[in-house]
TrEMBL record, chain A:
Domain of life: Bacteria
Name under which the protein is recorded: Multiple sugar transport system substrate-binding protein
UniProt entry tagged with the keyword Transport: yes
Signal sequence, start to end: 1-19
Organism this protein belongs to: Paenibacillus typhae
From TrEMBL, chain B:
InterPro entries: MetI-like (IPR000515), MetI-like_sf (IPR035906)
Compartments where found: Cell membrane
Keyword Membrane attached: yes
GO cellular component: plasma membrane
Membrane topology of the entry: Multi-pass membrane protein
Domain ABC transmembrane type-1: residue ranges: 69-282
Name of the protein this chain belongs to: Carbohydrate ABC transporter membrane protein 1, CUT1 family
Species for this entry: Paenibacillus typhae
Keywords: Cell membrane, Membrane, Transmembrane, Transmembrane helix, Transport
Family: Belongs to the binding-protein-dependent transport system permease family.
CDD domains in UniProt: TM_PBP2
Length: 422, 291
């Protein structure tokens, strides 16, 4: 009898161990101050949001308002801060049909990768109705968030620019008032390069540098998909000269992502950078302002051109809470939703009518208005195998900058990459 | 007879949960990986076609994979030489009797207790020319020293190996130390009476007595190095270019970033076969070394 009871206990223990492995992962519940009508039965009025904003100090305020106004209880899962890890995790969730997350925030790279894979729910009939679509940047919506079948798959949560940021003290020291064209840009970089400080700082890590290569290609009037184009060549040669001929930017930034670049910019090592966002890092370091670090309009080389980006809310096709998810997305696309993002996250509204709202004020609005009026605004060039393409171009660029390959070799291999990943 | 059958049945029933878990978490994924390696699977493009051994032919022509294989060999060999030479040296130091010996043994183990991803992220900053503590230290002796370690192929590779050594060397040394403590003091005393000095004793007693221990440790440490990916994932992202992309990092990138699962599986299969062969060779060698 004793043996059998021991056997029974051992068996029970084994089953318990097996069962323990089947328990679900953790998500964070929304605020305790949920609207009473949001506490739905059987998860009907609940969604799980995969968000990049959970570490923002104002996240809870944003969440409370989003829950109150959408009438949906929002559980959330924090996305990893590292871009590679984030991309891999989202890819795994979507490709495996994981329904534990309903709404995900994805960037342009992810949106382009996933838009034709069938993993995202079309939103044109339910959320992005004609009146809302009219207010969103048309080119961007078409390039980044519309599938080959014509489905619109994401709600952009803001409009951002890869803009030129300058340190005003260095601009003053260079005796300049503004940077209007290529000559001004070069003069500024040369004038501010001294004593171990550089006129220009970049984030030339292989998966980041693509943003800057494409920006210069646009400024020079080139075509990122055509490396037989002389202007594209000229743009990359210009970057090479910045690093190796004029030495106005350090080669060692090929190891830097935005966190390293921004730290150096804040510390005064750089006089200018191209950067996304509305200057949150600079504000936190008390380095933001018209007499310190601030955004300026793009200089005009052959073109005056700028990239726009966004993080968009997308609906997982495998979601079991689509009704509630659509209610949240309608809120996110509404004036209230966009203003909530502006108020709490400094995210400039993607909708033109909301951006014009008097609640949106300040220096960012002024410079954004100037940029929109004077620049050719484009979405970034991305191919279906986005990350592979970005990484390959970054590797080629790093090899060129370090003199491991020539400009001709770079252009030939870049063109091969375009054709391979197209 | 009946009793022994009953006990056998009970033993099988008790082992069964572990076996089931093993089948689902190890055997099934291995079989599935072999199967997928024969397909071209590109999730983003919805492609899934049987291609036979095309993926295997492609990987031996893929410059990124070849670079990864090359660096993996350098990484494993360099790191293991460091582990063995420095590990034995550290173990001998820790085996000496001196005040604070126990505290030192504890402190030495600290890096091993930290997660590799945390160490690798910190190392990215540590090897930075402007903010890094490595260059700060070098500048005590050479104030004009400037080097961004992670942008040149050779220095980046050296940095990756150095960080790997810094983290796991203490663990290796502690395990060697355990072996050292099994060597009888009488053997050293006898050698001393016969006129052997410390070097002679080390060569003739310590090394032979430790050889099996070191060989077995080396098998495990080599396997861990071959499958290591987190260090470059967090520290260099495989850069500059692809020069520090370990083969396991390449598998991860192909599988989870590029979503080329068929191709990733074929690299994983090659890695699996190489590891199986190395394990077999190492185990055979271990059987021959016996003191």
């Amino acid at each position: 009898m004793k043996k059998w009871s021991s056997f029974f206990m051992a068996g029970s223990l084994s089953l318990a161990v097996l069962a323990a492995g089947c328990s679900g992962g953790g998500t964070n519940a929304g605020s305790a101050a949920n609207p009473t009508d949001a506490a739905g039965s059987g998860g009907k009025d609940e969604i799980t949001l995969y968000t990049i904003q959970s570490t923002n100090p104002n996240f809870q305020a944003w969440l409370d308002e989003a829950q109150e106004k959408s009438g949906v209880k929002i559980n959330w899962v924090a996305a990893p801060t590292d871009s590679d890890t984030r991309q891999q995790k989202v890819s795994t969730i979507l490709s495996s049909g994981d329904s534990s997350v309903d709404i995900l925030e994805v960037n342009d790279e992810m949106a382009t990768s996933f838009k034709n894979a069938g993993w995202l729910e079309p939103l044109q009939d339910t959320v992005l109705t004609e009146d809302i679509m009219e207010q969103l940047p048309q080119g961007y919506m078409k390039d980044m968030l519309t599938s080959a079948k014509g489905d619109v798959l994401g709600v952009p949560s803001y409009t951002g620019y890869l803009a030129l940021w300058v340190d005003q003290k260095k601009l003053d020291a260079a005796g300049m008032n503004s940077i209007e064209n290529k000559e001004d840009f070069i003069n500024f970089l040369k004038a501010t390069t001294k004593d171990g400080q550089y006129g220009y700082g970049g984030s030339w890590e292989k998966t980041y540098v693509f943003n800057e290569i494409a920006t210069f290609v646009n400024l020079f009037g080139g075509d990122y998909y055509d490396w037989t184009n002389g202007n594209s060549r000229e743009a990359v040669k210009f970057m090479y000269d910045m690093a190796n001929t004029w030495k106005v930017t350090p080669v060692d930034q090929i190891a830097d992502k935005y966190e390293q670049m921004n730290q150096k910019f804040i510390d005064g090592k750089y006089a200018s950078v191209f950067m996304w966002g509305t200057g949150t890092d600079y504000k936190q370091a008390n380095r933001y302002g018209p007499d310190q670090i601030h955004m300026v309009n793009m200089p005009e080389f052959a073109n005056r051109s700028i990239f726009t980006d966004s993080w968009s809310y997308v609906l997982n096709s495998a979601s079991k809470n689509k009704e509630a998810a659509i209610r949240f997305l309608k809120y996110a696309a509404s004036e209230d939703g966009e203003l909530n993002g502006w108020k709490n996250f400094d995210r400039y509204p993607a909708r033109a009518d909301v951006a014009a709202n008097e609640a949106v004020t300040g220096d960012i609005k002024e410079i954004y208005t100037e940029i929109q009026a004077t620049n050719e605004v484009r979405g970034r060039p991305m191919l279906p195998q986005t990350m592979e393409f970005i990484s390959e171009m970054g590797t080629l660029f790093q090899n060129y900058i370090q003199d491991k390959i020539t400009l001709d070799e770079f252009c030939v291999k870049a063109q091969e990459a375009v054709e391979r990943y197209q | 007879m009946y009793a022994s059958r009953k006990y056998l049945a009970i033993a099988w029933i008790l082992v069964l949960p572990a076996l089931i878990i093993r089948v689902f978490t190890t055997i099934y994924p291995i079989i599935e990986t072999f199967r997928i390696s024969l397909y071209e699977v590109k999730l983003l493009q919805g492609i899934r076609e049987f291609v036979g051994f095309d993926n295997f032919i492609q990987l031996f022509q893929d410059s990124k994979v070849i670079t990864s294989m090359g660096f993996t060999v350098i990484f494993v060999v360099g790191s293991m030489i460091g582990h063995i030479v420095l590990g034995i040296a550290l173990a001998l130091i820790l085996n000496m009797k001196f005040a604070g010996q126990k505290i030192l043994r504890t402190i030495v183990l600290l890096p091993w207790a930290m997660p590799m991803v945390v160490i690798a992220m910190a190392s990215k900053w540590a090897f930075n020319n402007d903010y890094g503590l490595i260059n700060d230290f070098v500048r005590w002796f050479n104030p004009d020293f400037n080097l961004d370690w992670l942008i040149h192929t050779n220095t980046a590779r050296f940095a990756v190996i150095a960080v790997d050594l810094w983290k796991d060397l203490p663990f290796f040394a502690i395990l060697v130390l355990a072996g050292l403590q099994f060597i009888s003091a009488e053997m050293y005393e006898a050698a001393k009476i016969d006129g052997a000095g410390p070097i002679r004793s080390f060569i003739s007693i310590t090394l032979p007595m430790l050889s099996r221990n070191i060989l077995v440790l080396s098998i495990f440490f080599t396997m861990w190095r071959i499958t290591s990916f987190d260090i470059v994932y967090a520290m260099t992202s495989g850069g500059p270019g692809e020069s520090t992309a370990l083969i396991a990092y390449r598998v991860t990138t192909e599988a989870f970033t590029n979503l080329n699962t068929g191709y990733a599986a074929s690299i994983a299969v090659v890695l699996f076969l190489v590891m199986a062969l190395l394990s077999w060779l190492s185990m055979s060698a271990a059987k021959r070394v016996d003191y």
